[in-house]
Structures are given as C-alpha cells and as structure tokens.
Fold this sequence. Notes:
Layout: H1 2-33, H2 36-39, H3 44-66, H4 70-74, H5 82-116, H6 119-130, H7 137-158, H8 162-189, H9 195-216, H10 225-229, H11 231-257, H12 260-267, H13 270-281, H14 288-305, H15 308-318
Helix pairs in contact: 1-5, 1-11, 1-12, 1-13, 3-5, 3-9, 3-11, 5-7, 5-8, 5-9, 5-13, 5-14, 6-8, 6-14, 7-8, 7-14, 11-12
Pfam families: EamA
Organism: Photorhabdus akhurstii
Family: Belongs to the EamA transporter family.
Amino acid sequence: MAMFTNFKAAANAYGLFSGVFWGLSGVLLALLLKDSVLSSYFLIPIVLAFLNDMISCGYMFMYLVLQGKYKAIRSIPKNKKNGIIILAAIFGGPMGMSCYILAIQYIGVSYTATISAIYPAIGALISFFLLKDRIHLIGILGLILAVMCTMILGYSASTQTTSSWLGFLFAFICALGWSAEVVISSYGMNKDIPADIAYFIRQLSSSVGYLVIIILLVQFFPSVVHIFSNMALYSLLFATSLAATMSYFFYYKAISMLQPIRAMGLNITYTIWAVIFAYFLIDEPISVKLLLLCIGVSTGSFLTAANPRNIKKLILTLK
Length: 319
C-alpha cells in the first residue's frame, strides 16, 4: 500500500511540476523580451523560439545519450513513422511557440498562458472532426465554459489597444497550433514511437523549421549577437530552455505513469503558475477576474478532453 501511495504521489508530482516549469518558462521568455534591443524587433520572437527549441534539442540529445539510446537516435531517419512527429512539430513549434512568444510580447505572460490553455478543448474538436472521436455532454459544457472565458479575456485585451488585440490573436493561433500538435503527435506515439524519442524528434524538427524561416526572412532579422554578447541574456536563454525541457520531460513521465487525462489536468495548471511567477518576477498585476477566468479556461479545457468515466476514476483516486 505504501509503495502504491508513493507511486501515485510521484506521478502526481511529475504532472504538477510539468505545469510549474511551463509557467516558469513563459515568464522567463517575458523577461527576455523586456530587453530594449530585443523588444524593438517584431520578428525577434521567432529567433528566440528557434534558440529555445535548438538548445532544448541539445538537452534531450545529452539525456538520450546518457540513457544509452544513441542507437535509437541513429535509427530515427530510417523510421518512416517519425514523419508524423515531424508534422506535429511544425504545428507546435514554428506555428504554436512563435505565436506564444509574440502574444507574450503584446499582452503579457498571464493573459497569454490563460488563453493558450484552451488548446485541449480545440484538440478535442479537431479529434471529433478528423478522427471521429465523440464529444460527450460534459465535454460540450466544458468547451462552452472554456470558449466563454477565453472570449471574455479576448474582449478585455482587445478593448485596450490594437497591440493587445494582436496579442489575443497570436495566443489563439498558438492554441490552434498546440492542439493540432497534440492530436498528430498522440497519433504518432500510438505507432510505437517512445515518448522521449518523439520529443527529441519534435525539438529537432521544430528547430529545422525555424531555421528555414529565418533563412528565407534573414534580411528582416536583427543580429542575434546581442543575446550571446550579453551574459545575463545568454544565461537567461539557457535557463528558459531548460525550464521548457523539464516541463515536457515531467509531462511525458506523468503520461506514462497516469492516464493522459490526469496528466493533462495537472499540466494545464501552468496558467495559474504563470500568473504567480509573473507577479513575483516581472511585476504583472494579479486580479481576481484574471484568476477566475484562468481557472475557468483550465477547467473547461480539462472537461472537454476528458472522458466521463476517467473523471469518475479521478475523483475516486483523489479521495
């Protein structure tokens, strides 16, 4: 019994820490964007997203080598099934992560994290139309809750300034990209692709995708030497990427130990953690309205993606 209790506690801790580290990574990205040189360029978020994923790819490469999976890395190009993960990476990286950082630049990390947390609900809709997955009554109610809370957030943002309206749009596109990534990557991992290998492929493919964009638009990009010549920014960039990598690592661990629904339910608490970290690290104000909408979006997204039977099991296991 004690072993089972410890297992459940560890599994829940992995899921919770995946949310904590993702919330932290968003705030660290916001700190990077506070640099006056970086914030003056519209396309700098794409450069930051590229560097973030490239460094994360390096972290994962070292982890896999230390785990003795070098042969698995070498066999990646030989497995045609990995193309599914590459496709998912395009949606999650160049589309999703770039818009996530752009949204942070315009409306701050608190609003961005809350709006982007609607991605599980959108993912459920994509699964319904493309994979013919049924959406139950609780899921429909959850979707309505998530959409309503997001609309209120978007209205609050769009009535302030034009840039805030753009920030909401970027956050919503981010949610679309991440939801497509979830549906496609979960389909790929069902094809016997290990989670850690899938994440490495995801980061590698995303980095290549960003590189292509940067090469095509190189004349519009500022020199990134400023990032590496400034020791504070240099260290912050590596810390940001490490936090994001830890988030995904814990998330996949939680998925392997828990049902995916419970892991997702713990992961999307990143909205709340982002608000808390933003308050302490970058002085973003916390309002009761924002917290309530934050909880509403997370709850609605969870209910949309969850199965009623799994919700009952979750309630029983928490007792």
